Amino acid sequence: MSTKSYAERAKAHKNSAARLLLETIARKESNLAVSVDVASSVDFLAIVDVVGPFVCLVKTHIDILEDFTPQVISDLQALSKKHDFVIFEDRKFADIGNTVALQYSSGVHKIASWAHITNAHPVPGPSIIAGLSSVGLPLGRGLLLLAEMSTKGSLATGAYTDAAVQMARANQDFVIGFIAQRRMEPVNEDEDLLVLTPGVGLDVKGDAMGQQYRTPREVVLESGCDVIIVGRGIYGKDPKLVEDIRAQAKRYQDAGWAAYLERIQATTV
Ligand code: S5P
């Protein structure tokens, strides 16, 4: 369990994307990331603008947008400056090094040019990190490895998760942490691998397609995770209900921060 504050960890971190995230969390008193999984660019940007003040990070699935143009990226970057949040493209790369380097740098989306953080499945082995870091490291980006998943029946458990942790530990210049359901205990003082956790909801326990939800308190206080990732819990009722989205974002921000304060107090007394 991490006994250090986000602000202390920001000062010590060697990766600039991780530092930016930790500084943003401390500055805004928010460990909330919102996952904006909608198909229309207008809805996407409107939701980002509403939740922006409450979040440390916005998580995108840019390939969901059916009317994508590069203007969406310019608008997203402007909102990131306006509201002070980090951008994480949830691309879940999973191919050989050469292919992921091309997918990360090129194509329609040119992810490396705008996403501070992206993620990858460890399934191909360490070569996926070599491929992605050849593009991302010179740009000051950070990578998360999917060490666990929130879904029922996930295969990312046991020896697979342990191997993902070893891969991260061996590449801490570029790998800044994990998508996982619990903290992976550090092996030494200088190690700081962040844990960003999806599958978070206050009102329901899952969906009809295998998603499983835990509360911010379970995730941050009991499992020691650093960032809660919330999607439909915030905008799921109706992407156009601006007032409700704002209220839900505030509710999750408060719940995530209260759980963090409780964790810090519990570990310092
Ligand atoms: O294990 C995972 C990993 C990820 S990145 N489980 C997940 O749900 N995610 C992502 O988090 C998923 O792709 C989606 O964008 C978000 C959860 O959305 P929600 O609407 O269920 O909160």
TrEMBL record:
One of its GO terms (biological process) is 'de novo' pyrimidine nucleobase biosynthetic process. Belongs to the OMP decarboxylase family. Keywords: Decarboxylase, Lyase, Pyrimidine biosynthesis. SUPFAM superfamilies: Ribulose-phoshate binding barrel. It comes from the Eukaryota. Pathway: Pyrimidine metabolism; UMP biosynthesis via de novo pathway; UMP from orotate: step 2/2. It holds the Pfam family OMPdecase. Residues 31-245 form the Orotidine 5'-phosphate decarboxylase domain. Its EC number is 4.1.1.23. Substrate binds at residues 37, 59, 150, 211, 231-232. This is Orotidine 5'-phosphate decarboxylase. Gene3D superfamilies: Aldolase class I (3.20.20.70). The active site is at residues 90, 92, 95. It catalyses: orotidine 5'-phosphate + H(+) = UMP + CO2. GO terms for molecular function: orotate phosphoribosyltransferase activity; orotidine-5'-phosphate decarboxylase activity. The keyword Repressor does not apply.
